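Session log. Operator J.P. requested a structure for one protein chain; no other inputs attached. Running the standard single-chain path with token output.
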Amino acid sequence: MRAGVNGFGKRANLNQGSIIASLLAALLLAACGTTPSPAPQPTAATAPATAPVPAKPAPVTTDARPAILCFGDSITAGFGLDTGQSFPDLLQHDLDHRHLAFRVLNFGVSGDTTQDGLARVPMALAERPALVLLELGGNDGLRGLPLTVTQANLAQMIESFQSSGASVVLAGMSLPPNYGAAFIRKFEAIYPALAAKYKAPLIPFLLEGVGGHDDLMQRDGIHPNAIGAQKVEALVMKTLAPTLK
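Structure written below.
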């Protein structure tokens, strides 16, 4: 029996050890299960907003000089010439040299008829020109468009510019001899008639002394070359100078 008792007593000791080990394991597992949860990280919704950096305003450059607007076709645009050789470009240099504070805007578009120019008048008026040199009609004549239409379009343009407060200088044109003397006379007569009606200074023929001179014209015989453009500018300045002063 002693041996039995001893046997039971050893088993009892083992059972007690197992119970204690189990309790310790449970306590450790409980301790591991109660680890503190990590602090919430800011999300896109909760993260503090970063104040936007204000954009620097773009520099504003203004030119307060009154505008002289050259409103015409390829002759004004400087067709066939290098940059800076058109008569409006030369006119700006001349004005600067004379210390006359005006800025020249080149509103020449190659191929424009008076109808095309009429459609561009609102864009030109947005520039608030003080003076407009109106050079259109040549392409009308070259295309044989009705002279009454050409004259009516020019008249409407002059009225629009003058109503805005701008002075208008009208630049007359002519046509190659093959268009016939009678048609050319009627075409040329449009310009002095309009100048008289609207009391506008007139350049009877913008290419005076240039047209018909091979050394001053490009090969097409219609547009001035670089030297011819200088003569055109001199004629324009001769007409504008009394008005600008």
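Operator note: Strands lie at 67-72, 103-108, 131-135, 167-171, 202-203.
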